[in-house]
Amino acid sequence: MQDDRAEQDQLIETFDGRARRRSDRRAFFTAALGVAAAGGAFAYADPALAQTSVTDSDVLNFALNLEYLEAQFYLYAVNGSGLAANLTSSGSGTAGGTVTGGARVDFSGDPLVGAYAREIAADEQAHVAFLRTALGSAAVAMPNINISGDANGAFTAAARAAGVVGSNGVFNPYASPTDFLLGAFIFEDVGVTAYKGAAPLLSNKTFLEAAAGILAVEAYHAAIVRTTLYSKGVQGLIDATEKISAARDMLDGNPTEDQVRGIGPKDDQGIAPSGSGSTLTANLSPLNSNGLAFSRTPGQVLNIVYLNAGTATMGGFFPNGVTGNIRSTT
After folding, report:
1. Which of 16, 92, 147, 320 is most buried, most CB within 10 Å of its CB?
2. Domain boundaries in the chain?
3. Helix or strand or coil: residue 19?
4. 206 Cβ neighbours under 8 A, 6+ residues apart
5. pLDDT tens profile 171-216
6. What is the DSSP annotation of 149-207?
7. Which of these, 108, 116, 121, 129, lies nearest to 74 by C-alpha position?
């Protein structure tokens, strides 16, 4: 009997220990993610939007704005035309905005990049359709988008700010397959960090799983772009990615370092390798010291796509701002 009692006590202690560990892990992740459930929404952890609650619809509509931008860029590069009107209107029928610029890229000189571009274009169009279906009547209309490659276009403004071209230079991402890759590089890493940063804001697990699925696809896209640029072995291209990365770091501010969440003042990287010879190591996956992908808040993402490090509600690739409730960098 004593042996049975001792065995029962040991079993109870084991279960208690497991319960405590589960509670500790839950507390750790709650603190690490910095979120708190509140009436079906999450209290936003960004200090710039402290005390503001965002709904799942707000978060998905914010993502939809980014998908509109990416889909239009890739579809124009592949087809010379963008999304159909039925994929740009709001869920309640309001017409979508306009697209400035966009042109078909001649991929005949690099058919492999053309194949990548066609795959990514189809994926981005599918993301738009999926998010619109998930949101239903709550889906926002596409805002006005600038993807022009001329002297007054958003791509040129971004390239000038990064020092990829001179103050009077022009960057046209539709001029060649290589220029197209650099244009895609401007978007893809930002998309990955945007989805990762927004994930803790979602309260519906089905939406969270769907967002994780899109995040994975965006990460694949970013890896394709980064790997293809790196494999060309052109130092000028590597240098250009470092300049674009530095510009994004400048635009998105200096948040306090958090190695668990992947947040920090240096949350961006180009594709420059480290080491040399037998120690040469590529940098195709931009990660922190814990091997984690970086996160950006919606405000930081807007700083980048608006091409404005300060307080802004419009600019850059969204000349009149994004649509929905998450519109301002602050």
Report:
1. 147
2. 48-305
3. helix
4. none
5. 999 999 999 999 999 999 999 999 999 999 999 999 999 999 999 9
6. -STTSHHHHHHHHHTSS-TT----TTSSHHHHHHHHHHHHHHHHHHHHHHGGG---HHH
7. 121
